[in-house]
Design a protein that fits this description.
By secondary structure, this protein is an all-alpha fold. The protein contains three helices and no strands. 81% of the residues lie in helices and 0% in strands.
Amino acid sequence: MPGPLFNLSAYIGAVAARRAHVNVLAGIFAAWFGLFGPGVLLIYGVLPFWGGFRKQPVYRRMLPGLNSSAVGLVVAAVFTMGFKARSISHWSPYDRVGV
């Protein structure tokens, strides 16, 4: 059984199934499929069409904009989390670590 995500999802599924008085194996499978199922289905659903899609001129023109928007969303998420963490922190904004 590879990796911590697999083990964690199996554990959480087993605990949830046990609390709900359901078969533990059903809970393990449901949690595992809920975590890994969408990605696996997306890969096998898109993979047959990916080669033809990459050759389309529209895709080639859209790719720089898609990459830029992905970077912008990641940067926005980082700033949002940083500002939220700073607003709920009990530390003074003037505290310095290691000074």
